[in-house]
Design goal:
Order of helices and strands: EHEHEHEEEHEEHEEEEE
Keywords: Hydrolase, Iron, Metal-binding
Largest sheet: 6 strands, mixed
GO molecular function: cyclic-nucleotide phosphodiesterase activity; metal ion binding
CATH architecture: 4-Layer Sandwich
Number of helices: 5
InterPro entries: Calcineurin-like_PHP, CNP_phosphodiesterase-III, GpdQ/CpdA-like, Metallo-depent_PP-like
Pfam families: Metallophos
CATH topology: Purple Acid Phosphatase, chain A, domain 2
Shape: globular
Distance between the termini: 29 Å
Family: Belongs to the cyclic nucleotide phosphodiesterase class-III family.
Helix content: 10-25%
Strand order of the largest sheet: 4-5-7-9-11-10
CATH superfamily: Metallo-dependent phosphatases
Bound molecules: fe (ii) ion
Number of strands: 13
Length: about 240
């Protein structure tokens, strides 16, 4: 059994509001972190892709468990690489694979430099196809590849039929995990669960709801030995 947390859309800008909301969530997580197998963070880590914002993130997410991160449309690949990964600046997609407790996490860079919508580059899809084996795995990225019936639809991940074809070749994919929508949500993609993580910095509301702000949230995922994923959402006040 694997238990891990997912955060998304911290949009750290070294300002008091984003910092306070991120701290609320991390203060909730920190006492649990020793029991968690991982913390997954699905993009929009920084608000402007600045080095100081990534330094704040690194300090905040210094947790006693593996922290897996992937960029979003507010991130800057070059600065992200330099500050978070200690690598040379490059605009190549930031893809990474992590094996935790017999489960593979494939983190794909769905950002497009200079744009808010998302797309998986051909090289990212080829890489994903090569790292997904027969064992249980999660495909993780920032932009949801489906309509969520809200304003975020216009900047969703496009070209999703290409991703669907890759996932169809890999029955071990348990679920697709994403962020970007700043709301908890659950739907399906390529016949698998598609789980949307709530946002830390703000909450998207549907057209039928009032416009009040909601508390920051996170997801807690449990993958059992039958490869069934159960997701629990928490709001942290
Ligand atoms: Fe965001
Ligand atoms: Fe985003």
């Amino acid at each position: 059994m694997l238990t891990f947390a997912q955060l998304s859309d911290l949009h750290l800008d070294n300002g008091p509001r984003a910092t306070a909301r991120a701290r609320q969530v991390v203060d909730y997580l920190r006492p649990l972190a020793g029991e968690l197998d991982a913390v997954l963070v699905t993009g929009d880590l920084a608000d402007h892709g600045l080095a100081e914002e990534y330094k704040e993130l690194a300090d905040l997410l210094d947790l006693p468990c593996p922290v897996l991160m992937t960029p979003g449309n507010h991130d800057d690949r070059a600065v992200y690489r330099q500050v978070l990964l200690g690598q040379a600046a490059s605009q190549e997609p930031i893809n990474s694979v992590h094996d935790i407790g017999g489960v593979r996490f494939a983190l794909c860079d769905s950002s497009i430099p200079g744009r808010d919508d998302g797309w998986l580059a051909d090289e990212t899809l080829a890489w994903l196809d090569s790292v997904l084996g027969d064992g249980p795995s999660f495909v993780c990225f920032h932009h949801p590849p489906v309509l969520l019936h809200s304003w975020v639809d216009g900047i969703r991940q496009f070209g999703a039929e290409r991703l669907e074809a890759v996932i169809a070749r890999h029955p071990g994919v348990v679920a697709v995990l994403c962020g970007h929508a700043h709301t908890a949500g659950a739907t399906t993609f390529a016949g698998r669960p598609l789980v949307v993580c709530p946002g830390v910095v703000s909450t998207l509301v549907l057209p039928v709801e009032d416009k009040r702000e909601h508390a920051p949230g996170l997801a807690l995922h449990v993958l059992d030995d039958e490869r069934r994923l159960t997701t629990f959402y928490r709001t942290v006040v």
